[in-house]
Amino acid sequence: FTSQTVTENFAKVIHGLNADQLTDQVIQRSKRMILDTLGVGLLGTSTEVCHKVAQYSKIYSSDLSSTIWGHLDFRLPPLYAAFVNGVAVHSMDFDDTWHPATHPSGAVLPAVIALSEAFPQKKKISGLDLLLAFNVGIEVQGRLLHFSREARNIPKRY
């Protein structure tokens, strides 16, 4: 018998998730969340704050690159593409939310898409893999919120 730390247990659960565990209901909800986040993000690309972070991020380059939403000719290293696209989503503040207060898709989707674009052509991931990665990101965020005393106090403060 070995006792696991919270972190070890958390990692084991997340690592054990696979696409077969995505129910039809989870897939449909995920697609709706993704579509909503993309729509809000595309609208957010026109905001002043998004323009500022995009201009700032142009100084970075790498062999890997990912698309800035709404600008097919503008690519950045995956980290900065996720940052710019995440700012675009959050700049509108219409993206999905849950309790305790957070916007899960706006943090997860830009990172998942930026990373998926950075894969070599011969190792491209499937749509189901993308849905799994998205849901793992949402699950991680939800579990971290569950363990956070600070997050539990958000409703009392607002």
UniProtKB/TrEMBL annotation:
MF term (GO), any: aconitate decarboxylase activity
Source superkingdom: Eukaryota
GO CC entries: mitochondrion
Entry similarity comment: Belongs to the PrpD family.
Domain MmgE/PrpD N-terminal: 8-151
Pfam families membership: MmgE_PrpD_N
Cross-referenced Gene3D superfamilies: 2-methylcitrate dehydratase PrpD
SUPFAM superfamilies to which the protein is assigned, alphabetical: 2-methylcitrate dehydratase PrpD (SSF103378)
Native source species: Rhadina sibilatrix
One Gene Ontology term from the biological process aspect of the record: defense response
Taxonomic lineage of the native organism: Eukaryota, Metazoa, Chordata, Craniata, Vertebrata
Name assigned to this protein: IRG1 decarboxylase
